[in-house]
Write a sequence for this structure.
């Protein structure tokens, strides 16, 4: 595990996550900030990666965290201390500037992430050894320079695949995107121009989703209606094969437009490659392919841990609530961030860390190994039912339900019924408004006095970066009201006269 703020280097480094230069966050700033530190109000609602890094730096300085971080340091091994069964301690060996150092720690959090080891299933692409063009994993991609005039095939239809295909289509002669199962695609912009996650991630909508999840036909119909509001996915060749699954949608504002322009063509699964062409499952062939980008996801491993501590099988790990190895005598090891919620990762890992530290300190207790294993098995079965068996979905989970679950463990879940009596305005905001991280600082350990204000004023911070042009607005409520009444009358009359033609 390495900690380094220089994450946008041109060269991709082994053992370290990598991003392309144009990456923009898929979750909005109000839904992605830490629970006691809203992002600056002048920050855009969706952040370029450099802006997100700026927020982390501001946060680290605010809470004086830099002194606790050892930069340019590799963790070589994490082993149980000889008296682990009684102390729960760990021996950690690190290397920095060529020097190894060993230290003993009372607890360890593994936060190395699951987007490091590229997954390129070359065995699934017969003829790849004959292909004369260039091919690489999306992890290697940085920018579109050098791909001018090329015919490019992007394999995969996740967020990275879509971003890269869109960006390359502005330089390349033609881009093809190959997908096995299809995917829903949604815009960052939702109802009334608000960020999508502030509209969809509410407790009310989560409740409806949970109730209707028992009925697959209704769930499938609602999913189709919601996702096809922007455009008909079947017409664009993007409709998912298993439409009832709650697979994470692709967030991309430009993909449908680039398909309309003809700059991107959607293709089915690749079944064979030749020296210069790709043959697809539907029998079609695309010739003169110059470049193949494998946006086929990632695998993950823990080379610094003993294999018996955290086992990875078929890209899955058996962790209690995606965090704790159930079989340890002492609960002093936690995996943070090995999860893919249908929402922002930052509030999720923050709650994970809050719970883990309370477990380490003995303030929260984990159940028996048998209970934890049973919960893990049941959770995995539910995950498969909701999201499917695809490798890309092995860490998928609901968002609000999981946040509430973690918050309940530490006593930070808001009591809506109690709030309805004491503070009805806030209770309504919590239930029908965006479920963001501030809610988990209203009560319990780590309570923050500014949480209520942050919830009430979030709309102001959403609109602030948009108010870059002064507008003259009318305050004449009566005129506005009368215009609405006249509009309704006009619609009613038009409908009435329309009926006369039948």
């Amino acid at each position: 595990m390495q900690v380094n703020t220089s994450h946008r280097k041109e060269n991709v480094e082994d053992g370290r996550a990598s991003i392309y230069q144009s990456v923009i966050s898929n979750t909005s700033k109000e839904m992605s900030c830490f629970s006691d530190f809203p992002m600056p109000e002048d920050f855009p609602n969706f952040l370029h990666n450099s802006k997100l890094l700026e927020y982390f730096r501001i946060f680290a300085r605010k809470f004086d965290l830099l002194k606790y971080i050892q930069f340019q340091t590799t963790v070589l091994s994490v082993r149980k201390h000889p008296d682990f069964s009684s102390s729960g301690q760990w021996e950690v060996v690190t290397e920095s500037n060529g020097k190894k150092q060993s230290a003993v720690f009372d607890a360890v959090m593994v936060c190395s992430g699951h987007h490091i080891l590229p997954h390129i299933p070359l065995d699934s692409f017969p003829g790849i050894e004959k292909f004369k063009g260039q091919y690489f994993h999306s992890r290697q991609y940085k920018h579109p320079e050098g791909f001018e005039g090329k015919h490019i095939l992007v394999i995969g239809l996740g967020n990275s695949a879509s971003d890269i295909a869109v960006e390359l289509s502005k330089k390349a002669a033609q881009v093809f995107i190959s997908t096995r199962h299809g995917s829903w695609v949604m815009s960052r912009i939702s109802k009334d121009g608000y960020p999508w996650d502030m509209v969809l991630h509410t407790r009310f909508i989560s409740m409806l989703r949970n109730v209707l999840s028992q009925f697959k036909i209704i769930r499938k119909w609602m999913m189709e209606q919601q996702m096809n509001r922007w455009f008909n996915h079947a017409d664009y060749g993007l409709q998912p094969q298993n439409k009832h699954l709650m697979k994470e949608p692709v967030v991309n504002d430009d993909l449908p437009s680039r398909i309309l322009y003809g700059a991107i063509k959607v293709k089915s699964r690749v079944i064979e490659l030749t020296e210069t062409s790709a043959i697809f499952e539907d029998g079609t062939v695309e010739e003169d392919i110059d470049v193949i980008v494998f946006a086929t996801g990632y695998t993950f491993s823990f080379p610094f841990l003993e294999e018996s501590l955290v086992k990875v099988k078929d890209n899955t790990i058996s962790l209690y609530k995606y965090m704790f190895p159930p079989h340890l005598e002492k609960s002093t090891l936690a995996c943070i961030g090995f999860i893919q919620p249908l929402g922002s990762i930052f509030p999720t890992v923050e709650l994970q860390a809050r719970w883990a530290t309370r477990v380490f300190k003995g303030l929260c207790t984990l159940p028996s190994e048998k209970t934890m294993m049973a919960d893990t098995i049941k959770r995995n079965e539910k995950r498969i039912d909701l999201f499917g068996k695809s490798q890309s979905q092995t860490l998928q989970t609901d968002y609000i339900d999981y946040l509430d679950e973690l918050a309940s463990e530490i006593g930070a879940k808001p009591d809506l019924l109690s709030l309805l009596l004491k503070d009805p305005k806030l209770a309504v905001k919590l239930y029908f408004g965006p479920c963001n991280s501030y809610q988990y600082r209203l009560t319990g350990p780590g309570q923050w006095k500014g949480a209520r204000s942050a919830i009430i004023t979030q709309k102001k911070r959403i609109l602030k970066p948009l108010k870059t042009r002064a507008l003259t607005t009318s305050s004449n409520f009566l005129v506005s009201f009368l215009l609405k009444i006249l509009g309704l009358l006009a619609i009613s009359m038009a409908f009435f006269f329309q009926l006369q033609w039948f």
DSSP finds 16 helices and 21 strands in the chain. Residues 1-9, 497-502 have pLDDT under 50 and may be disordered.
